[in-house]
Amino acid sequence: MRGGHERMPGRTWMKAAHRGYAPLAFTVRRGLGMRRLALWVLIAALLGGLMGAVPVSTALAENAPVVALGFGSNGWTYQQVAYDGEPGFQDPAFDDSAWAVGQAGFGTTDGVCPWNNADQVHTAWSPGTDMLLRHSFTLPAGASAVHISGTVDNNADVYVNGTLVQHAESGFCTADGINADVPDGNIGQDNVVAIRGRDLGSATFIDVQITYDAGGGGTTTVISHSYVSVEYIESFSTTRCVIDLVTHGFRPSAANKLCLALRGSVNSTPPSYLDSSNLAGFAATKEYRGLMRVPSYEVTCSSAGQVLSVSLHDDSPFYASLGYTKVPIAGVTYQPGESFNPQDPTFDTGTPTILRDPDGAVIISYRWASRLATFERRVQYDISGYDAPFIWLTFDEKIGCDGRQAARFHFTDFPSTDLYINGLRVSHDKQTNNIAKFIKQGGTTLHPPGYGNLAFPCHIKQFDNGNPTPVYSYTACQDNQLPPGAGTGGGGNL
Ligand SMILES: [Ca+2]
């Protein structure tokens, strides 16, 4: 399965995950045991496809400063002048070819201050003069937070690329008086530091180092899109429902009761825009059977294309709800949908799985399954002899260090499902009219809460790079056919 995650042309990108779906594409005629096996195969295949992947730390690593020019460096060009001599020496283009070249620190070795000794002073600087120093230094692309630190006796004007970044007055034997942050806008790859050290008498000394933050050095950041899915029951024809049920073997009285109850639990239509700004408000209406929001993530990659970290880009975290059964008795009440987690703990965990793929990508996955509230489910069973199946949705997203993104949704054909990207509704799949088929998927055994049958797989939709038009859209359940390419790794290019 690893092969499916290697860097490859779009069509087969993350095809291993697609193969993982294939075993779920079974037919109505297969039994419960086969369906459970198929689901197990699905999950095993998905996990198998991610073998070698490891959890990603959600904390950005702190990067230690990198030394661009150390204390005691060689290669300084220098000239000792009278106070204010050689104006313009700080210009990067200044011609210092006639200057001497020496090693820092510069100063006296008379032992006046702790650094006035031959260990730290390598080039002489006479008291009562200005010491002009120049040194070039190179930074990698993406370097930031350049910092100059050091000690001077007595004063110093510090320039980077001709711009004054600090005027230091250190007094007498004061260490670390040079402490300058260089604005990122002042630096490039090739830079010149120029310093006018000024001594006011007695001992002299100056030595500095230059550091930078390589945290951004060569790294790239990919911001993922956010996604929302909503399941809800749309209005439908009760007559057509009854005909469908009776045609499929339900007693007319049972068909009538079931269709009326279902008709009474129709939800309002979800908003056309749904994102973090209005998600909580919509969630509070309880007018849905399932609701999930996958937030935007920030993926930082090394220059070599490997994921360094994943963090939440949004101010809103991941959200998932199993929705509510709307019960129109004595007004309207909303009963929480049943979770599939007791039967399969990989569902409804509340937290998406975030894995780092060896090919330089992040895979974010979540799956939930929800069923009629327990009491209402027992009522349905008493009326019809069928338990209710779990509706479900699986979400898999791949965010590549190369900037490519893909998100795939796999979900049932009942109820209706709307999908949103960055708040905008991009997809609407109306619930099937074949309600009898859906109900029968629950099987003729009344299961305990949290256990039972998953509804059949149906819709597969994949969106690439936030594009509202799916690159892959397939409905397999209407005629119980396999998706194209199922079992061969074909299909979409997640
Ligand atoms: Ca002095």
Helix count, per DSSP?
7
> Are any ligands bound, and if so which?
calcium ion
Q: Beta-sheet strand percentage?
A: 25-35%
Helix content: 10-25%
State the major sheet.
8 strands, antiparallel
Shape: rod-shaped
Q: Using only CA atoms, what is the Rg?
A: 34 Å
In the predicted model, the low-confidence regions spanning at least 5 consecutive residues are 1-12, 15-62, 478-494
**Using DSSP, what is the number of strands?**
30
The helix-and-strand class reads alpha+beta
How many domains comprise the coordinates? Answer: 2
Mean pLDDT: 83
N- and C-termini, Cα separation: 14 Å
What key phrases describe this protein's structure?
494 residues, alpha+beta, Jelly Rolls, 8-stranded antiparallel β-sheet, 6-stranded mixed β-sheet, 30 strands, 34% strand, rod-shaped, disordered N terminus, disordered C terminus, binds calcium ion
Can you walk me through this structure?
This protein is of the alpha+beta class and 494 residues long. The chain folds into 2 domains: 317 residues, no CATH class; 148 residues, Sandwich (Jelly Rolls), CATH 2.60.120.260. Helix content is 15%, strand content 34%. It contains 7 helices and 30 strands. The radius of gyration is 34 Å and the shape is rod-shaped. The two termini are 14 Å apart. The relative contact order is 0.14. The N terminus and C terminus are likely disordered. Bound molecules: calcium ion. The site of calcium ion (CA) has 9 residues, from loops.
